[in-house]
Amino acid sequence: MAQPDEPHPPVVPSCPLPSKTCDVVSTERPRSCCGMALAGLRTAKYHLPEWHRRNAGVCYEAYTAGEQAERGRAEAKHLVKHAAASAQRAQGYSKATLGQRLQDLHFWRVELQKEIMELDAETNLLAAQKLRLERALDATEVPYSVVVDNLECRERRQPPDLVIDEVEKQLMKEADLIRDIRDLLKRTIIQATTQIRSNRIQKENCELDWSDKVETYNIDDKCVGYCTDSTDVQSHPSSVKFEENASTPKSWAQFSHDNISRAEQEKLASVQLRSLINNIIHDASEDLRMQRAAVSDAFDSHCRELDEAKLRLENHLKQILKDIGDEEANIENLKKAIRDKEAFLKVAHTRLYDRSFRPNVELCRDEPQFRLVNEVEGLTVFLEALKRKLMESEQNLKNLEETRMKLEKEIAVKANSIFIDRQKCMGYRLRYPVDLEVASYQQ
Hints:
By secondary structure, this protein is an all-alpha fold. It has helices at 33-43, 48-139, 141-154, 166-224, 249-355, 367-428, 436-439. The two termini are 62 Å apart.
């Protein structure tokens, strides 16, 4: 800072003392041989007026020197007093300026420390949210393995039931949903890691600025305590200069302001990311819950359909078994009827055969002969009808047996499908996490 203008001490102009030239008095007396001998002594002496003038000059010089010395002492005293006052004022002004600087340093130090603490707390909160994302990502492994296991189990259904039904569609939809959620969680974890790194970098910048402020505060506070009675003050003439890389007060304040502003931006971005993470976990949990309910409903509906189909097949099988029993009894009756008719036919054949041995005119086409022939023809017709009916009944029995086998196979297929869907799939789905959002808080 430029010091206020101070009055300069008065300047006394210097005047040279008058020089004194000693003149030798010449004599006009006639020279003699004696005079010639004393000439050297007479030429080195002054006249009396010259002696007086000489004494007066010395006194004047002494008076002038004393007056000048007194004036110099007065000027020196005034200069000492003025210099002391000026130095005191300058030191006081410098001390006040340092005090103001300490206040500025304290303000920015407090602001930076506050920002560092808030940014550190926000970073910890974001790290906790990142941990929730990682736990949620781990929690999706079980649902995904459950879905994959369900799909693999349902691949073991036998061909009649190996269809792309609603359960299959819902399971595929659930698998796609879980894969999308896992990809989203992974991308969000990367985003959170990047934001945490940015927070820590900006926190480090603020800490460096804060540490510089603390060190500068201690230096300036030490400087404020210096006075003329301090024992640790020394002369440092080389320090009386401005460094080329020194900042200006404006750039100095702007530097800290920029650090705080960037920290606020990172903190705001972190807060928004935490909110986004909450929404992502909540929405993912809701989507999984709804899809899990849809799959469960599809399984329940399909199992009911399988139960109804199996029940219908079992009812048909019971009827087929009854029909098979009736048909077997019918076949036995037909066989018995055929045997009985064959016995009657044998009797008629035997009668005709024996009557064919009647002698001569006795071999007559009498009424018994006609009756026996009619009886044989009638029995033959009935036997052929019975045999045809027996063949039809045996074919019906064969068809009933094939139908029974088909029904039993279909029932076994349905039972296998019910076992896969109800016991394997739905039983394994009991391991499904209750809630993804709750799982993100669990250790």
